Amino acid sequence: MQGTHSDLEPSVRIRDLKKDRVNFILENVDLAFANSLRRVMMADLPTVAIDLVEIQANTTVLPDEFIAHRLGMVPLVSSNCDEGMRYTRDCTCMAACQYCSIQLKLDVACHNNTTMDITSNHLEVTSYQMNDFDNTGEGEAGDEPSKRGEYFGHPVGKNDPDVAPVLICKIRKGQELKLRCIAKKGIAKEHAKWSPCSAVSFEYDPHNKLRHTTHWFETDERAEWPLSENASEEEKPRDDEVFDFNAVPRKFYFEVETDGSLGPQEVVMLGLAELQSKLAQIVLGLKKTEPEMLPGERVDEAPQAPADSWGASGGGGWGGNTSGNAAGWGSSSPNRGGGGNTWGSGGGWSSPAQQGAAGWQVS
Amino acid sequence: MPDAERTRRKPTFNTLAREEAFRNPPKNGSTYNILNEFVLPHLESFNALFDDSGLPSGDGDGRGLISLGLEDIGERVVFDGDGKVDNRGWGNRMRIWIESANIARPMVPDKDKHSTTRKVFPSEARERLTSYRAPRNAQGLRTCSYHEPEEFGGYFVINGNERLIRYLILPRRNHVISLIRPTFANRGPSYTQYAVQIRCVRPDQTAVTNSLHYLSNGSAMLRFSWRKQEYVIPIMLVLKALFGASDKEIFEGVMMQDYENTFLTDRVELLLRSFKMFTLSTGEQCLEYLGDKFRVVLGTPEDWTNHAVGAWLIQKLILVHLNSPRDKYRMLLFMLRKLYSVVSGSCCADNPDSPQHQEVLLPGSLYGMIIKERLEETLNQIRNTITIDVRNGVTVDFNDKKYFQKVLSKVNFDIGSKLSNFLATGNLVSPTGLDLQQAAGFTIVAEKLNWQRYISHFRCIHRGAFFAELKTTTVRKLLPEAWGFLCPVHTPDGSPCGLLNHLSRTCRIVTSPLTVAHIPAILAAHGMSQTTTQSIDGRKNYCVQLDGRVIGWARPAIATQLAMNLRIWKTEGINEIPLDLEIGLVPESKGGQYPGLFLFSTRARMMRPVKYLANGRDDQHNPTNFLSILANLTPFSDFNQSPRNIYQCQMGKQTMGTPSTALQHRTDNKLYRLQTGQTPVVRPALHNTYAMDSFPNGTNAIVAVISYTGYDMEDAMILNKSAHERGFAYGTVYKSQIIDLKDVPGASKSATPTLHFGLGRDIQRNGEKAHSCVEFIDADGLPFIGTKLTSGDPIAAYIDDTTGKTRFVKYKGDEMGLVDQVRLLGSDAGDSELQKLHITLRITRSPVIGDKFSSRHGQKGVCSQKWPAVDMPFSESGMQPDVIINPHAFPSRMTIGMLVESMAGKAGAMHGLAQDATPFKFTEEDTAIEYFGEQLLAAGYNYYGNEPMYSGITGQEFAADIYIGVVYYQRLRHMVLDKFQVRTTGPVDPVTRQPVKGRKRAGGIRFGEMERDALIAHGTSFLLQDRLMNCSDYSTAWVCRTCGSLISLGYEDISLGEVAMGASSSLRPSGPGGEYCRVCRAAAEAQDERERQALAAGKAAPPLPQADVKVAISSQHVLGRASKGGDLDVVAIPYVFRYLCAELASMGIAVSLAVT
Questions:
Q1: What is the pLDDT of residue B964?
Q2: What is the sign of the dihedral through the CA atoms of B483, B487, B491 and B496?
Q3: Which family does it belong to (chain B) (predicted)?
Q4: Which residues are within 8 A (CB) of A349 and not within 5 positions of it... i.e. 6 or more apart?
Q5: What is the model's pLDDT at position B36?
């Protein structure tokens, strides 16, 4: 680890924040941490998406399974999904209940001579009625529903006239679509529909000073390779600059664009919290294996273990309880502890989601 | 120029116009008229059968080809006498002929009382799986009901299938070609390899081929065929018979003043001399002679004179495209001269494989020929029936109407069924063969696999089934003459390569004759010598022919001038020279083609747009015109190595695309549908022209060319799992199941059905004990729409009246299917009970590992892994590829077009442009790379389309920049789900007990000899035994230790401790299970018996009779003889070996095994 860098606190500078995107620079963390954040934001944040569709009437041109697939792709408002909903697999109900699912209904028929669009705006969130459960019963009572926001589970943009709805199907006179959907909580690792991000742009070293990559060119590198917008954030390399082969990337340019199910801010916050909880799991896992550990090893009590402790004990408790992502994050970083000891207290990074992270279970 | 060019490129997705056209389809006609244009030859050729309006005089009467055919059929004559002189001679003479033939529209049967529209539309026939019959009206074909906005006609609906008659290449009509074929010499003594041939076509489009063979004695023989039988007559006989030409006339006619040419004089002298032996000097005599010889085969009226029969022969079979004997005579002389010049080597043989000497067999013409022949056959049948009656002494009274009704009832008038049989099978059942080289394979199914495949059926043209078996590949060669007629790219690879071609995009086929009667006069006015002119010098004059008729002679300079004039006139519309007149000027050349000026105006010729350089007249000239429609759709095909474009033409037709926009009206056996088809960003200009956007064939995919994870090696490709989950290349297969209660076992043959769809009283539909079928089937016995079916589930139920029980029809597929549609099929009249169902099943086919994909550049690959999105490489902007392919796919294949498409697609996607990918738009000065590179640069990308990318796993930048862009990807119909084959145990062959073969039967894959060799070579003997024995036909068998026989096992029932006693009450030895060798026991007992008898007689035992052949068995085994057949052992052998022993035994060969 570079002495100069380790002294610096990780920092975030938000360059642009919009309703559906945030553009920020993450500094003074390592590549592995930055990439882990990217991966977690893309694949590990729970959201709500339609998972089961019960078709009651479909006389449209699209077959049932295709409409079901399209409905699954509709982003639903999932703020505070972590607390507002259980995973169905963790719920004691038989199939779905108010604690682990949201019910949406759609009932559209066209009676006019013009083509009608069935859109996500036609989806109505409905509370469960008794006859919606076919003797499946409810799960153990919990406070999840109270933690949901006003529009939790609603299609994104339904209550906003400025946002164009998602087109599901077009129908003509006499055609009808009636169905019941059950939206569940899930993560994008399972299916892409649960991903809150539409794209995460990620860049470091716009001038290629580190020479991680080579810019192939025919005649003139400068003419053929336009600099990215992020290049202005960094000093242009001088022509006579000496190559610093010890340098590592420390500055990462992110742009997180969401599909609206979670706000961009929430995505980043939750991403960090998720990363934290994953590491906590590792630590927890290491603790459990304490008796099997080599003598003389010291295990830290705190979830935010110092770098050397869990780096050295890698032989014992890796893998078992960690998900695939955690393994990826730890594997290639040359200095594992780089960001580890700082992000718990990192300035401005405290998030309400962190409190919930303790109760979160890793699948 | 480049800049001006660039502004002219106006790419557009045409979205708004298309949407508008889709919302408000034109009231009459179709949105894309070009679709009707390219099937025009199909349609017009049928229309010509009944409507030839606009025909110039002399070319028909405007009533169509059928009426011309009827005229040609003429009359049949019968007599009510038997011709014997002692009776009353021939008696009464009656002439029979067909006055006219008509066709009707398909109509609802009169029985039906409910229909409001009596007309039947093709779509109904298609959906009801019947034929669109009684029609035979090309007009009806064209005005198909428009379920499909882009529907076009030109095909037939036979039993619900769309079938069409494929174009076939034929020798050019009315044009003499010279041939050198060594096989000609085998035709008989003194025949040589030289011949000239002409395929003469009558006005009704039926043809007769005449050949003129050169004999080594200098004379020539004329060959023709009549009812599949070939006949040869001396040419002199015909020349004389035509109008009684004298020897001098013939001599002069052939020589044409070329008296110094001793080669020619010698031959003509021999020709004339050799005919002297016939002692026929006048034309009359020749006709008499011909008539006498051919009377037996021709079937002409019995009262005709030999002279009349001879004249009829000449009229009907020799140079039938010409009417007047003088024309025929001149043409024969021309043929003779051409023949002699080929023999002398002053001109070369013509190449029959060149499009110069070819034309097209039009579907309608073939159809008309068949109709004509069937009509002729009915006429002959009537005549024969009456003749037989007369011969058998049945009272034949020509004035008795009842008698005629009887005769007519015996004759089969159903031409329609013959025709629909022809269309359904493509087999030509014909007594004459119609002068065609093949009798089968005329029709094909127009498969609607996707739009590209469908439209190419209408443009394909076959060389002929005969050539497919030919060993030589010369017929398959792509000749420069084919430029603009046949597409050099669009031909399948493999066995039909080069034989099954496709017409170039702008190639037209002339379907109507032209007004040409005035041309001879115009040419004569411009310097052509008339045919009547005496003493024309054959050396200095070209023959001028119009449609195979000698219309005059012209000196080379004049002929060249005439050709140029005609071309200028036809392009500029002067002198009423039709534009489609074909002008072929063959200049004289040493050892080249036979010179002359040949004009053609008949139909069935292929025409291409050309630019006449002399006056610069341009007929929609375009560099891509020489490509077929499909070849034109390959983007940047000019950048690709040519075989790759051929592959794309194949793969485009195998793509899972959009077969139809009216799927609910289709009844095809199997349809593939891509659910999320897109319009390609990069597309040639013709994409819009041919309505390709109405039938999308693929998806624009983000493609990175990178070697990542290793799962992309050897043409495999990695799919982004998230892209897959979002529906990338999601497809559906629609399969049909037809349930006809008439075909079900137990169906009654009577008119009233005993099987009815429905659930009977024996099925409980409600309550606790409800039958399991109610999940799938409603009370009417039909499945619910949308029901999920797995193998073995009931798909329909019917009640059997005789037993009162309900029976089920099972779903037999092995995949989950969903009921998409249930179609109830009634009878034609709509008055019978429901007996037939057509069920469309929808089978979802989301892409899985092992499915095949391809770009539009012949780059196919198999999906090898669905890689999680987070682990996929990504670019700085966060883009992740949908598809990863390996860079090794490019160097050897050189599909630069794909690389250009990737760049163009990327730039197009960034700027929102539809990129024009028409080939030949870029030049060395204005390169594609430059054009798209600038666009990429403007969008902030690297000029050459590369991007730095990051590993999804570590987040580190790759050491190399990655080529990433947008490429249109097609999903091919070859899917693992249809192909995988796996077996542990399963059905075995009853004879050999080895696993059966075949995927359908759950069989195994053959582990053959070469595979065996491999295992032997590796020394893996355990594997070898496992594969060839244990996993195959492992069996155990008893083998006799004494005689080594495998097949002589016998069993004694000694289960309860019994012992078997022989006839001589001695103990019979057997093994512990009672097994014994029947052979050895019999031998031992015989020996015993002999010994006993010898003992009784007091003599020494006679020696054992010895077998002829002794098998070497080591003595230790022979010792076992003492056991008298009781010593058997169990050995493990392959079961086939036992079978082999039994088979050998049946041939008297014993197999002996040594057991140690």
A1: 95
A2: negative
A3: Belongs to the RNA polymerase beta chain family.
A4: A12, A269, A272, A343
A5: 78
Distance separating alpha carbons of residues B820 and B783, to the nearest angstrom? 10
From B541, B519, B518, B514, select the one nearest B529 (Cα to Cα). Answer: B541
| Strands B716-720, B860-867: pairing kind | parallel
d(CA A72, CA A192): 10
Distance of residue A141 Cα from the nearest chain B Cα, in angstroms: 33
Contacts made by residues B1015-1023, CB under 8 angstroms, sequence distance 24+: none
Q: Number of residue pairs across A and B with CB atoms under 8 Å?
A: 114
Contacts of residues A304-308 at CB distance under 8 Å and 24 or more positions apart, as own/partner, are A304/A279, A304/A340, A304/A341, A304/A344, A305/A340, A306/A337, A306/A340, A306/A341, A307/A335, A307/A336, A307/A337, A307/A338, A307/A340, A307/A341, A308/A337
Mutate to test the interface with A, among B722, B728, B957, B958 (most CBs of A within 10 A): B957
B197 neighbors B174 (Cβ within 8 angstroms): no
B592 reaches A (C-beta below 8 A): no
**pLDDT > 60? residue B143:** no
- The pLDDT tens digits of the residues spanning B517-527 come to 889 999 999 98
Residue B808 near residue B794, CB atoms below 8 Å: yes
Q: Across residues B632-643, what is the average pLDDT?
A: 93
- What residue of A is the nearest CA neighbor of B956? A31
User: The tokens 């088979």 sit on which residue?
Assistant: B1143
Q: Which of A39, A66, A223 sits opposite B870 (nearest CB)?
A: A39
Q: Which of B76, B81, B55 is nearest to B67 (CA)?
A: B55
C-alpha torsion sign, points B370, B375, B381, B384: negative
What pLDDT band is residue B76 in, cutting at 50, 70 and 90?
confident
Low-confidence spans in chain A with pLDDT less than 50: 1-3, 135, 299-363
Distance between CA atoms of residues B892 and B883, nearest Å: 21
pLDDT at B327: 92
- Tens of pLDDT, residue by residue over B884-924, are 999 999 999 999 999 999 999 999 999 988 999 999 989 99
Q: B797-807: per-residue pLDDT in tens?
A: 999 888 888 99
DSSP B1047: S
Under DSSP, the state recorded for B889 is G
CA atoms of B310 and B292, how far apart (whole Å): 8
Q: Cα(B327)–Cα(B551) distance, rounded to whole angstroms? A: 9
State both tokens at B210.
Answer: 């005449």
For residues B411 and B426, give the distance between their C-alpha atoms in angstroms, rounded to a whole number: 24
d(CA B543, CA B559): 9
Q: Tell whether A325 lies on the interface with B, counting CB pairs under 8 A.
A: yes
Q: Let me know if B220 is exposed, middle or buried by CB neighbors in 10 A (0-12, 13-18, 19+).
A: buried
Interface list for A 138-177 with B (CB within 8 A): none
B519 torsion bin: left (phi>0), alpha (psi -120 to 50), beta (else)? alpha
Of B105-109, B1052-1056, B1070-1074, where does the model show the most confidence? B1070-1074
